Fold:
Amino acid sequence: MRRAVTGNESTRVRDYVKLPRVIRRIDKWSFCAGVGALMTTQYVATSMPEEFWKYYCVCTPLIFVARAAYYRMIRWQYFLYDFCYFANAACLIFHAYAPRNVTLFRSIFAFANGPVLVAIPMWRNSLVFHSVDKVQSVFVHAMPCLLTWCGRWYGHGDDINRLSPMDLDSPALYEGLRDLMVYPIFGYLTWQVLYLIKTELLDMKKLDSDPTLMTSLRWLAGDTKSAQNRMALKLMRHIGFFGEDEMFDAKTVKTKFVFIWIQLTYTIVTFMFIPLMYSSKTAHTAAMAIAFFSCVYNGAVYYIDVFSRKYVERIAMAEEYERKNADLLSGSGADVEDEYRELHFPID
Structure:
């Protein structure tokens, strides 16, 4: 493998990928792959929307496997239990086992176009083509919405009820609202219970003993500069639940309660717009366009304001690493300490 990748059986792959020329080559190919994936997705969604579900069902497991391997490497594997992955799994289960179940489709429609779609601007997803991690994040949040857009307005050829508009004077209106709001809330609560069982019971000792394992709660509670953290803390202090000098701590029950409550409120609020999106193709398409534009704009901001500076710094670090470890990279087999571990990861 070393010979095939590096051309020298004595050069480790993890050292080879730190070379400036290799970093540039990988980023160029990643950029091309990201653009190609976007073009392919657009082609399938617009040219054959009734078949988009097949494209989704092929791509999603591959993305999940790749993401799981990468996240396990950087100890972020608990992010894979977040609600967005639960929603994607529900989409896969629907198309595998119950593609004609209108009630289930409406539930995944609510998942995909409610909390998962709104998460794109909320968490500042960025369409950064050369970053596999960022492109995958956009995929996880955007593809369920695009999948349900194709299914809702073009169908799969056997779902007449799903294609029919919701008549405000029809007795079926109650049933539609139940399917689009009540059942999805129960689905969300099911995920929340399972998540708490996993993190607070089954893996509690593992998480307590290893602070390097990252979870959503640890990320949000520790990111004191994020708007979500500051707003939530300000609200908790305003209502007196937190003291003026008290900060979020992912280990405390109080902090866990706050984030569970805020996430539930956020989810219910996003569900309130689902009936309108389900009834109007224009409203549905507009909501998608706004969310997708936000990730494109965030990508532009990243490239102009962040990437141009950090990429030069990253290459400079790689060149310094190459200079210091010239013997190792030339194939001498010398073992050195990895001083530039951050080069394994995408630029933040």
